[in-house]
Amino acid sequence: MNASHVVVEPHILYPGTPVVLVSTVNEDGSDNLAPISSAFWLGWRGVLGIASDSQTTRNLLRSGECVLNLPSPTEVGAVDRIARTTGKYPVSEFRRDMGYVYEPDKFGRAGMTKLASETVEAARALECPIQLEAVVAATHGIGEDSDELRGAIRLIEVRVQRVHVHPDMLMEGHANRINPDKWSPLIMNFQKFYGLSGQVHPSRLAEIPESAYACLATV
Known about the structure:
The chain has one domain (15-218): Pnp Oxidase, Chain A, CATH 2.30.110. It has 4 helices and 14 strands. The protein has helices at residues 55-63, 76-81, 93-97, 106-110, and strands at residues 15-18, 20-25, 31-36, 39-42, 45-51, 65-70, 85-86, 101-102, 114-115, 124-125, 130-141, 153-165, 187-189, 192-194. Helix 3 links the parallel strand 7 (85-86) and strand 8 (101-102).
């Protein structure tokens, strides 16, 4: 690879982030399901970046709960079927110009099956190998120093309350460990979908017992 670099100004910076299907409950009690690709976790806390005017954000702020359904590459078709849909009516001019359409039945359009959750009202997506029931812990603004961004995006901190995992994803002999060799998250890489390759190098972090992080699971 050439050692020199060039300065660029990409319109988006999504250099490999996980896709999350966020399920919430609408005002009328129906279910909403929305794909996002701005999310990360620390312990049992998650941070979601979502447009302030989206139906998902409205539902999160009103109900204070959700399910974070984590798809693998196997579920990419379902994710893509609702990629340019919105549960908010009428569709905003910005989204309409990008080809978004109103869809009141996101689960149906995606072809995913609803499962009842145990600690929240929002439904889980059966087909997703990992499902995280969560409640809103805090909300934050982003881009408050910019006239263009101020108020446009919300950072929503959630506290995970229950983790559901398909048994095929678990490490043999461990009831509470997800096997990274079996779990492959769906990745959004500059607007295109990717999966993970195999492990490329041993990790010194992996030498730390996973149980050492147990204190973070209850905060």
